[in-house]
Task: structure prediction
Amino acid sequence: MAKVFFVGEVTERKVAELVSVLDRLNSEHKALQSIYLYINSPGGDMDSAQAAYWAIKSSPIPVIAVNISTVASVAAVMFCGAAERAAFPNTYFILKPASVTLPEMSMQPVHFELSRELLKSYNEVFESVYRECTSLSADEISAVIESEDNRLLVRASEAREKGIISSEMREIVVSPLSYTILDREDLDVRFRSRD
Result:
């Protein structure tokens, strides 16, 4: 088995690194039975999270996503791409609606329309993932994505009954293959191999 730590915001750079790590493991270590992906993330960029979701879901070697502290917002999209999902005790998930940040500009009607369309599109992603990755009812999911006031904070102890995870973990696996993907630009993906 191999393990990957994904810590911090979901960004284009970090997801590109994650895709590279998954490709490397799948091409150079085909005998692996599983890849443990430990996630601690407050969320970030929805487009990057969708790319991570599909890379994780498409991995020939099954990915087991593990919430190691916090999986919030778009990090939940990434988390839900895994073949299996788990969490450590006292961790939590935050399910919420999308938000859009536009660059500073003078606002014109077209910008409001663009924001509205982006929000609608991103909330459709959340709705689809929450349907796939939870046992929440359609009404509960609609409530979550319609208002920030209805965000759900789901503790690990509740996550199994809500269908988010299938098991709890109490230790990090020991593996000769270990990668870490961090926010800091000066720390690239770290690879260690113990032979």
Observations:
- The chain is about 40% helix and 25% strand.
